[in-house]
Structures are given as C-alpha cells and as structure tokens.
Amino acid sequence: MHFSKTILRFCWFLSAVILLAGCATPIGIKEVSPHDSYRELMANPLTEGVASNATKIVLRRFNLLGEYENDPAAVIAFLHDKALHDDRRDTLYALAELSYLYGERLEKSVVEAEQELAPDYFLLASIYAYFFLLDDRIEPAPNAFDIRVRTACDLYNFALWRGMQTGNAGALNLTAAVRKLPVGALAITVDLTKYPWKLEEFERFEPVDKYVIRGISIRNRSKGVGSALIGVKKVSQEVPFPQAVPTTIFLRTNASLVELTVGTATASLEFYSAYDDNLLDVKGRHPPLETDTTTPVAYALETSKIWGLDLGAFWGKEFESIPNGLYLTQPYRPDRIPVIFVHGTFSNPAWWAEMLNILRGDPILQQKFQFWAFLYNSSAPIVVSATDLRDALRNKVAQLDPEGKDPVLREMVVVGHSQGGLLTKLTVVDTGDSLVLALTGKDLDSLELPEEKKAEARRLLVVEPVPEIKRVVFISTPHRGSILSKQWVRTLIKKFVTLPVRIVETALSLHTYFGEDAKRMIGSSKVLTSIDSMSPDNPVLKTLADTPLAPGVVGHSIIAVKGDGDPKLGNDGVVAYTSAHLDGMESEFIVRSGHSCQGHPFTIEEVRRILLEHLGTQAKPTQ
Questions:
Q1: Domains of the chain: residue spans and CATH
Q2: Start-end of H helices in 320-364
Q3: Which of 332, 366, 504, 548 has the most CB atoms within 10 Å of its CB?
Q4: Whole-structure pTM value
Q5: Do the beta carbons of residue 469 and residue 285 sit within 8 Å?
Q6: 584 and 616 in contact (C-beta within 8 Å)?
Q7: pLDDT tens digits, residue range 371-409?
C-alpha cells in the first residue's frame, strides 16, 4: 500500500512538471505594452540604473556577466586592457556605462574612501564615452541612428560634471589639475578662449541637471555634447542682483587610450557661452554643444530680490537698492540686434521671463537678436522714467560702440508693456514744446524758471527720438489713460508712495506753472506719480497719444481684450481698447487676455512675427 501511494505521488508530480513545461518554455516571449517595450529597449545607467543590452553583449563576450557585480573595478580594468588592443567601439561603450554605474555605487557607499573614488570613475566614464564617439579607430564611428550614440552623449555630459565634483561638499572644481585615475592619469588644462567672461566673476558653477524648473512653461534645451552648467555670477555694483548665465563645458581629450594608461594623456576643459552658436571641431567632426538657457534664468529668479521690486519699487521702498538702469541679460554681441523689454506698473523685468525664454529658444531669433531689459521705479512720473530710459540707451550705445562701427546697434527694437509702452513711445517721438504747452499752457522759453530748473524741464519734457531705435511694440499700453486711474485711486496711492527727492523737487518747482487742467488732475499734493500720468485727464498724455512716431520708426500694437465680444468695445481690466489703439501702426493684434498678457502664447508669437519682419523675413500672422 505504501509503495502504491509513492507511485501515485510520483505520477502527480510528473504530471505537474509536464503541465508547467507546457505553460512556460525555457525560451519564449511575453506580450507587453508599447510603453514597457520602449522602456526595456532604453534601459541604461541613466534611465534605469542598469547596464544596457549593448553592454551586456560585451560582458557576455568575455564571460563577465556575473563578475561585474562581485568586482566592478577588476572588470573595468580587464575591459580597459582589452580596449588597448581591440578596435571594437562597443568595448569603449561598455566601459563608459560600467564606470558610470560603479561611480554611482561608490558615491552611495558608507565608506568615505570609496566615496572619494566616485568622481574618478565618473571622469573615466566621460573619457570612454568620448573615445566611443570621437576617437579615430579602425572600426568606423557609429551612425547617427545608433541608439548608443545618444546614450553615450548623455553619459559623457552627466559623467563630466559628476567627475568634476571634487570640491568641498561635492562642489564643482573646474580648475587645471592632474587627475590620478584607476587606469592611468590625465593632465587637464582650462581653455577660456571662447568664453565671454572671466572665471573670477563667478561665485560657483552648478550643473543644470541637478534641477527641474517651475514657473516657466518650457525648458530650452539643445542636445549635443558637453555638460550644461549654471554660472552663478558674483553680485556687483554694476549688477546688484543675482545673475546666472548658461555655460557649457567640454573636455577635449588630446590623447589616446594608451597615453591615458601610461599617464601622459592631456585634456583641455573648454568653456562656452550658450548664447553663442558653438559647433565644435573635433578631428573633422562637428558635434553641437549641449545647452540649457532656461534653467539658469529660473535659478537666478528663485531667490532674487527683484521680486520685491514689484510693489516695493512702486511704493518707493526698494528703488535705492537697485537703481533705474538698462541691464543686459547676455553678453553684448556686435552682430545681434538689441531687443529691449520695458516692464509696466507694479512690475519688474522678471515678468518678461516667459517671453524671453521662448524667443531666445527660437533658432532664428537667438542668432540675430540680443535681449536687454530696462528696470525703473514704476511710481515715478512717466516723463521722468522715460528720460532715464533714453539716457540709459544713449549711454549704453556710447559705451558699447563709441566709434559707431556696429550697424545693428542702430536697429534696436523696444517692447513695452502697459506703462512701459508709454516710456517706449517717449523714445521715438519728437515733441518740441508740445508737452510743455500741454502741462503749463506756455512754451518753455516763456516760463520764468531758473536756468537749472529750465534745463531739467527741457530734459524731461522736450523729447527727441533715440535714433538707434527703429521699431517699437506696444503691449496693453494706456495711450489715452487707464480705466483704473480714477481720482480716488490716485489720491489713495499718493498717501503711500515715497518718491525720490529729485523728483519731488522738480515737480514742486514746476507746479506754479502747471495749467488748470494739470492742477485739477493732481489735486493738492502738487506732485505727479505714474498713476497720475496714466489718468485719462492728463493733458500731457492726451498730447503724447496724438504725437506720431518719428520718421523711420515702425510701430506695432498688441492689445489685450477680455471676452469674446467686439474688441473695440472691450478692455483688459485695466486698459480699454480705445485707449490702447493708435492710428498709423504697421499692425494691430488682438489677444483675448487680461492686462498682463506678455506671457500669453499668442502675444509671444506675435512678437516673434514682428522680430522676423524686422529681419525682413516673411512670417504668417498668428491665427
């Protein structure tokens, strides 16, 4: 009986084995989703933290599939030795992946000595990736459709900055040095010949791939080789708020794998600005640089005190710490047309970030234009801020091109939003005495003012166009006043605004000569603010609205209107269409939006069209 039970159990066991064998053969397939299929195909050290199939092929070739987990350093040394005598590029690719993976394992180690080795293996990974992509070997370079090419570029880029993290607390150390590596040595020099800044201008460099952005809709990232960095500049008197510039480093290896092994290899750490068009020249190949122009902007704005200049500057609390001025957002280039952004009331240049980011990411515009911004105290009378803008533009031209040799510097485009549009118009009109007459009822020579006060009045109110400006764009501009600039609003605001002494003194010295309309408008305070300036009752504003642009200047209007009704009957919540409209403009574009429309996609697309038109390029208007 016992024997019979044993036989029966064996039969059941044998049946189960047969059934299982029928369900899952030793070799077969499994159906997966397209997402999972692609994810498996793209698995590599950067996506999944594992070796790719291409690297496993090399490990299998040398019977090392199981050895790498036990002794990564020995496997890397073995494959390195093979690569010295074997021209197959896939060994170099495998070395790049395996060195990167081992660098990550060392970085996570609890043993300090092992952690210190991690940058060396990352640097090795970048060198192997470089050799795979760009070294001269009997086996031809991989074709552009080889999946390993893009992965090798990314490995090179990530491994390069991680390989340079030898400073305190993992800071980047981008100085000349001799790096002792596990399989040799590399003498690194620094090359700044194509970099527009000096290294001593920087506080530190940060890799862009440590961060994700927020508050800006798209990230301008061009793919290529090189590690994209954020160059954090030191705060200075010239630029009193944080600046971060897009930088790319490229490590050019000037040696062979054999020279690396014997310790005679050299390499050059080259610095580039992402604002320049940089195609590298490496042994007759011309790979593009990896760049990121968005993340540095977001980094600088993360903690910038410029955000306090919205209301702070308006109320007069912050304007002394960051003075009115024209600020270059990138190094001056004599072959690129300046586009100057002028912000509105309760605002600052940061509100142009969305437009700036998208325009700068355009492959045509980034090669033809450079972008600047004007910062000003938006509570000051408009004629004062406009005078500061004109002075800033003239001074900048004199500083950058004292001999007048740069023709594109005389093709400027100025884009103004809201109050900034009024400042913009006051750079491209010839008013003669018309503004003085509107304010006082007399021409300037008839006013019994001391000469120094008369000179100041002439500087503010007798406007001559800035000849370098050839095109202007008005966005949500209250040419005939704002619907919010009512008397009670202006009276309330004056209780809180603190204007600079020079503005108060000038206003008081002129008040005696104001006409009745002007006196009624400003009331008993005797001092104008920008809110007074944007009153529909302001006689100066009425005169300015009717003043044509100077000959040779082209104007465009972008008018925001809420809702879907007749735009001519609408407004944006701050400015009515009838106020924003100007006769004689080259184009008028309606965007269905509230007042702050400078970040609206259609506004940005229209500005792009206008800039292309400025270049003489035909572009279809936004639908």
A1: 38-296 (no CATH), 323-483+530-614 (3.40.50.1820)
A2: 353-360
A3: 366
A4: 0.84
A5: no
A6: no
A7: 999 988 877 788 888 999 999 999 999 999 999 999 999
